[in-house]
Write a structure and sequence with these properties.
Layout (H helix, E strand, L loop, with lengths): L6 E4 L7 E2 L1 H10 L16 H7 L5 H12 L5 H9 L2 E3 L2 H10 L4 E6 L3 H10 L14 E4 H4 L6 H11 L6 E4 L3 H9 L3 E3 L13
Parallel strand pairs: 1-4, 1-6, 4-5, 6-7
Antiparallel strand pairs: 2-3
Helix pairs in contact: 1-4, 2-3
Keywords: Hydrolase
GO molecular function, one term: hydrolase activity
Pfam family, one: Hydrolase
Length: 204
């Protein structure tokens, strides 16, 4: 870790929250939505899922279009439960790590995500120690709100512009090497952790 680093930008899926693609696909298959498998990628979503994460469609439209694609009369709650099964948990040691890092750095969240996942995560994962998601980060940047997706340069430029932080003083942690490559092109330092890695070692 460079001694000049003042800011951290941290990804959500695969870095903080553990993911289970197989569980998610099986959950959708149980409700008759086999079509989800071709859309669900560990790093970048496709089709309806990409539109949802880019904020191009609302949650209501996503529900309706998924029902059409599946050809089944599936309820909104069934769809949401199946979709949320992609997210397993945020280990408590990572939440404690975030709190300790905030004492040393300005910590930001940058995630390709959607309203369904984010609302569930705020309720289930970030309520740790009676806190809220906002207690763990200086500011939160979510793709569906920004209408921008990693690995575009634009989403990183948005973070730099809105926070006023300098790229050379910033460290980005993301489980996608492609996302990290884009950040590096802008002068941001990066680290790509392995699946379920305890990446806290880079701060010791």
């Amino acid at each position: 870790m460079n001694d000049n680093i003042k800011n951290l930008i941290i990804d959500f899926g695969g870095v903080l929250v553990d993911l289970d693609r197989s569980r998610c696909i099986n959950s959708f298959k149980k409700i008759g939505a086999d079509c989800i498998e071709e859309m669900l990628n560990p790093y970048y979503q496709l089709g309806l899922l990409k539109d949802l994460e880019n904020g191009d469609i609302t949650t209501d439209i996503f529900h309706e279009e998924l029902r059409k694609a599946a050809g089944k009369d599936i309820t909104d709650s069934q769809i949401d439960d199946a979709w949320n099964s992609f997210l397993v948990s945020v280990p408590s040691y990572k939440l404690d790590l975030l709190l300790s890092l905030r004492e040393r750095y300005s910590v930001y969240l940058l995630s390709n995500t959607n309203q369904i996942h984010w609302e569930m995560s705020c309720e289930r994962f970030f309520s740790y120690k009676n806190l809220t998601a906002e207690d763990f980060f200086e500011k939160i940047f979510l793709s569906y709100q920004l209408h921008q997706l990693k690995p575009s340069k634009e989403i990183f430029q948005t973070v730099l512009l809105e926070t006023g932080i300098r790229a050379e003083e910033t460290f980005f942690i993301d489980d996608s090497a492609v996302n990290c490559k884009t950040a590096e092109l802008l002068g941001i330092h990066t680290y790509t952790p392995k699946d379920q890695e305890d990446w806290g070692h880079i701060f010791k």
